[in-house]
Design a protein that fits this description.
- There is one protein chain.
- With 625 residues, the chain is mainly α.
- It has three domains: 44 residues; 242 residues, MetI-like (MetI-like fold); 195 residues, Orthogonal Bundle (MetI-like fold).
- The protein has a two-stranded parallel sheet with strand order 1-2.
């Protein structure tokens, strides 16, 4: 029995603690077991529906009826690049090789950036839709980061005449859909437009051969229009980052001899890099999703290629293969954003916050700052609205007809339904993550927010086939049981549009709902469960009344985004069903922009409300303010 005396017998206190800990573990396990199965199953169903379009697109791309990938690559995606592209590619490859072998050399970092630029230029030199898309994204990203970051720094750190008004005006172009701005500028700057007509009347020129004028229907015009509308994404993220930066870090840079511009470049911009990357990523995704503006300007991007390959060439497999290229670009964007963020952490080392010490700009400097901040607003909002208002006034009688009212009512009803569905899904996902944060729900809720990055054309392509298959199955069952045909219940109906809107804009509502849930103390959950409430009854009786403001904001944001959505609506709408977006697109495609101006102006005015609410949240976000 000597071995028995050597056993590690715990003391009475250790045994008591272990038994108490076991009881707490069992209690936690039971509580989690009560919440997890139902919420996990619901989240799994939502994620399956969201993943269905992407899985369908990949399957269609891998199993086409005929192998046309070589034709697509040679004639649609890439084409034959000029000889300069090969030289740039060779220089980029040499730069990357040097950087990989000697990353710490003095010339390594500049050479790395040169290699990145050379690679983008080489790929952009391809005349196909891939090169056009890359040129558009690169140009719009570069312009928006310069315009958005510089304007955000001026408004955040300096006081000049009209600063408060400029701060609000700078975000307003976000309410303008890109295709509407494209229509307005083509009407203004085209050969038959008022500007060139006035120029010819003043100089006596007769034709376009007599003078040079920038072509708005070009890749440069597309970059100009995308940048004018989308720079607020960068402005808002940069503004939020600058507002919350430490004033002490900037003052230390100044004491070490940095000028205000030097402190901005060496301290403020590196600290704001995650925010800038996030804003530019949104700009690039919007460029990838756009179809109305690029088609009207004659720029053949990947989205336009999917649309034309599917509808004009009746080749579903080829459209799916182009859509997989778009999905690959989305994945690359997310990976680049994650790599740019890295493992670096930026946080304050003190709980005390000082108000921002504004630097006064007086005299010509103040007026110059005011002018610099007003130029993006004028280009992205004021000029297009003036064009729309002029055209709406001259064609008011022809524009306000039965088609306009039908499109307006369709937009209102469809956007309202989509907003309600998206808010319910966002509330379900956000609350499931709160009450049952297991190993499946947490990453699933994060992935649900990626739907906004999926272009509308890809969603439409991926939804049409499974919905049509389900319609056929329901129709066959109904015929065998009742002898009646059910027809198309899902595909080719409003249901398909609601599903597409809900998947695409779920991220908009999810972010707002999760922010509202974070403001509710977990003690309320514990108190409700202690009083016998289940997780579902606690949601209905405790959380829902407290979340009404957040749910209203989420619904408003989704409503406005659904009003503006064009690519998915064009591809999934029923026959003879128009929204304001497709109504404007159809009239503009027929060069009847005077009749389309009123519908475009209506979309813009509706979009102003959430933009101003978003600005209020960002501008007042400094801790301790």
């Amino acid at each position: 029995m000597n071995w028995l005396t050597r056993l590690p017998i715990p003391s009475l206190g250790d045994a008591t603690r272990r038994i108490g800990g076991l009881g707490r573990s069992v209690t936690r396990w039971r509580a989690k077991r009560r919440a997890s199965p139902m919420w996990t199953a619901v989240v799994a169903v939502i994620m399956a529906v969201m993943a269905l379009p992407l899985i369908t697109v990949v399957i269609l791309a891998l199993t086409p009826e005929e192998n046309i990938w070589p034709h697509l690559a040679a004639n649609v995606l890439f084409g034959r690049p000029p000889s300069a592209a090969y030289l740039l590619a060779a220089l980029a490859a040499a730069g990357f090789i040097f950087w990989s072998y000697r990353p710490t050399a003095p010339a390594a970092k500049p050479l790395m950036w040169f290699s990145v630029a050379a690679t983008l230029l080489a790929l952009g030199s391809f005349p196909g839709s891939f090169g056009q898309t890359l040129l558009l994204m690169t140009g719009a990203g570069a312009v928006t980061i310069v315009a958005g970051a510089s304007a955000a720094w001026l408004v955040t750190m300096y006081r000049f005449p009209g600063r408060a008004i400029a701060d609000r005006l700078l975000v307003i172009p976000l309410a303008m859909p890109t295709y509407i701005v494209a229509y307005a500028y083509v009407d203004l700057l085209d050969f038959a437009g008022p500007l060139q007509s006035m120029l010819r009347n003043a100089t006596g020129w007769q034709s376009a051969r007599d003078y040079w004028f920038p072509q708005i229907r070009s890749i440069g015009g597309a970059v100009f229009i995308m940048s004018a509308v989308l720079y607020p994404y960068v402005y808002l993220t940069a503004r939020a980052s600058f507002v919350q930066q430490s004033i002490c870090a900037l003052e230390v840079a100044r004491t070490l001899g940095r000028s205000p511009l030097g402190a901005f470049i060496s301290v403020a911009l590196p600290l704001a890099r995650p925010a800038l990357v996030a804003g530019v990523s949104l700009v690039l995704m919007e460029c990838l999703n756009d179809i109305g503006a690029v088609q009207y300007l004659g720029v053949q991007t990947l989205t336009a290629s999917v649309y034309s390959t599917w509808l004009q060439r009746s080749n579903l497999g080829g459209a799916a293969q182009i859509a997989t290229v778009m999905l690959s670009l989305v994945i690359i964007l997310f990976a680049a954003e994650r790599m740019a963020r890295g493992r670096a952490q930026r946080h304050h080392t003190t709980g005390r916050y000082r108000s921002i010490p504004f630097h006064d700009l007086t005299g010509w400097k103040g007026y110059a700052a005011t002018g610099l901040c007003l130029v993006p607003f004028a280009v992205g909002f004021l000029i297009p609205v003036i064009v729309l208002a002029r055209l709406s006034w001259t064609a008011m009688g022809d524009a306000v007809d039965s088609r306009f009212w039908a499109a307006a009512s369709n937009s209102f009803v469809l956007s309202s339904i989509a907003a309600a569905v998206a808010v319910v899904l966002a509330l379900t996902l956000g609350y499931a993550r709160r009450v049952a944060p297991n190993g499946f729900i947490r990453p699933a809720v994060r992935l649900a927010g990626l739907g906004y990055a999926v272009p509308g054309t890809v969603l439409a392509l991926g939804l049409l086939i499974p919905l049509a298959g389900l319609d056929n199955a329901i129709d066959a069952l109904a015929r065998s049981v009742t002898g009646w045909s059910t027809g198309l219940l899902l595909s080719g109906s409003v249901v398909a549009l609601v599903i597409a809107y809900s998947i695409r804009f779920l991220a908009v509502g999810l972010g707002t709902v999760e922010a509202g849930l974070e403001r509710i103390s977990p003690n309320l959950d514990a108190a409700a469960r202690a009083l016998g409430e289940t997780s579902l009854s606690a949601l209905m009786r405790v959380h829902l009344p407290l979340l009404l403001p957040a749910l209203g904001s989420a619904g408003l944001l989704v409503f406005v985004d659904a009003m503006k959505e064009l690519p998915a609506t064009l591809l999934l709408r029923p026959f003879n069903f128009d929204t304001l977006a497709t109504h404007v697109y159809g009239l503009a495609s027929l060069e009847q922009f005077e009749e389309a101006a009123l519908g475009a102006l209506t979309i813009v005015l509706v979009g102003l409300i959430p933009v101003l609410l978003l600005h209020k949240a960002v501008a007042g976000g400094r801790p301790g303010g």
